[in-house]
């Protein structure tokens, strides 16, 4: 009786070959479980005659070893096929998602602008956000009584000092001065950074924002170089066919000075709310570096000339992404920030 059962189950075990976790578990329960076949057979064995015990004992032990070995080898085989310790895991289930961060829109725009000018050989330079009067105003040819020096505009930190009052820089033009003071022409640089102005915070104004300054100084640099450089920049940033126009303007540190408009990125010049139905939007200020500025920085203005420009990064980002409220850039609201996830990393 017992011998027959063992023969039958041995055949069953030998024929069993699946490595599927759930079927293997059923096999274990059926043969090796606490209420399994091997337990039953050992119970029955207790009742057989002593002669039978002698022969059957060995058979029974071999049978038990066979079942255990089969189970172990199939389990290992299955585990390896599914990647070791993860045996039994359902690999068809979807993975657990995790949040990926997004680049800030201002960082995206800054990088895009820097990459365009990199192609023209401009390097990137930076300067301090806490500046003295000399670098922020005087060296840049601001007259003593210029309203930009006023308490209304500037956040002063300390009155007096070796190089004048200490303040938070109001523009990145200060980095031009630092660059020219500390180096020798030619200069070809882009200077991005944060600037501060004492303004009431609203959708259209903020007490801090970001600018990118550009400077090109060499022998025989002309206004034609300025126009061509900025024209190239606009074609790269907004696409070929974008028109530019220069309007005369005034900045203390450039002569002549201009403001540059581009044909409206939304309506392409037909007139819309963004361009206030003019077809044009202003994007930057520029001009030929005033000889006084070159001399203030120890550069021979008879030998060298140059152009400079400055633009607000928020302004460029607003045009690109149609963001209507400046405050969104600094509020860290992830509902706003996560919209830039798909933008280039
Ligand atoms: N610094 C100016 C501003 O903050 C921007 C600017 C205008 C920079 C003309 C320049 C420039 O370099 O040539 O409004």
Concise synopsis of the structure shown:
The protein is α+β, with helices and mostly antiparallel strands and 345 residues long. The protein has helices spanning 2-15, 21-32, 37-45, 50-81, 105-118, 133-136, 173-182, 223-238, 291-296, 313-321, 334-337; strands spanning 123-124, 130-132, 156-158, 166-168, 187-196, 208-218, 244-251, 254-263, 280-289, 305-312.
Task: Write structural notes for this entry.
With 345 residues, this protein is an alpha+beta fold. It folds into two domains: 2-86, no CATH class; 105-340, Bira Bifunctional Protein, Domain 2 (BirA Bifunctional Protein, domain 2, 2-Layer Sandwich), CATH 3.30.930. 38% of the residues lie in helices and 20% in strands. The chain is built from eleven helices and ten strands. It has helices at residues 2-15, 21-32, 37-45, 50-81, 105-118, 133-136, 173-182, 223-238, 291-296, 313-321, 334-337, and strands at residues 123-124, 130-132, 156-158, 166-168, 187-196, 208-218, 244-251, 254-263, 280-289, 305-312. The strands form two sheets. A seven-stranded mixed β-sheet has the order 1-5-6-10-9-8-7, with helices on both faces. A three-stranded antiparallel β-sheet has the order 2-4-3. The longest helix is centred in the N-terminal third of the chain and has 32 residues, at 50-81. Residues 171, 173, 213, 251, 254, 285-287, 308-310 line the site of 3,4-dihydroxyphenylalanine.
């Amino acid at each position: 009786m017992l011998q027959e059962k063992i023969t039958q189950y041995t055949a069953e075990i030998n024929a069993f070959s699946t490595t599927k976790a759930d079927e293997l578990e059923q096999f274990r329960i059926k043969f090796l479980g606490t209420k399994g076949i091997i337990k039953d057979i050992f119970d029955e064995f207790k009742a057989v005659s002593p002669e039978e015990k002698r022969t059957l004992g060995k058979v029974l032990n071999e049978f038990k070893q066979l079942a255990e070995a089969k189970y172990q080898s199939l389990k290992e085989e299955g585990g390896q096929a599914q990647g070791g310790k993860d045996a039994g895991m359902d690999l068809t289930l979807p993975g657990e998602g995790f949040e990926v961060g997004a680049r800030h829109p201002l960082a995206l725009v800054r990088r895009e602008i820097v990459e365009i000018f990199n192609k023209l050989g401009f390097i990137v330079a930076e300067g301090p956000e806490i500046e003295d009067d000399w670098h922020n105003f005087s060296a840049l040819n601001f007259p003593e009584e210029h309203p930009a020096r006023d308490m209304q505009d500037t956040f002063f930190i300390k009155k007096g000092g070796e190089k004048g009052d200490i303040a938070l820089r109001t523009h990145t033009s200060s980095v031009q001065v630092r660059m020219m003071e500390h180096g020798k022409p030619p200069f070809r640089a882009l200077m991005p950074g944060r600037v501060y102005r004492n303004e009431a915070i609203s959708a259209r104004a903020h007490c801090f924002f970001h600018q990118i300054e550009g400077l090109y100084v060499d022998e025989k640099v002309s206004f034609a170089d300025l126009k061509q450089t900025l024209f190239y920049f606009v074609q790269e940033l907004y696409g070929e066919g974008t028109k530019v126009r220069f309007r005369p303007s005034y900045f203390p540190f450039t002569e002549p000075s201009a403001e540059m408009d581009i044909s409206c990125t939304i309506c392409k010049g037909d007139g819309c709310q963004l361009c206030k139905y003019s077809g044009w939007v202003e994007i930057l200020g520029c001009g030929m570096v005033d000889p006084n500025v070159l001399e203030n920085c120890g550069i021979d203005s008879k030998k060298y000339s140059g152009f400079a420009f400055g633009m607000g990064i928020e302004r460029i980002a607003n045009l690109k992404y149609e963001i209507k409220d400046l405050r969104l850039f600094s509020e860290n609201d992830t509902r706003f920030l996560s919209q830039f996830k798909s933008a280039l990393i």
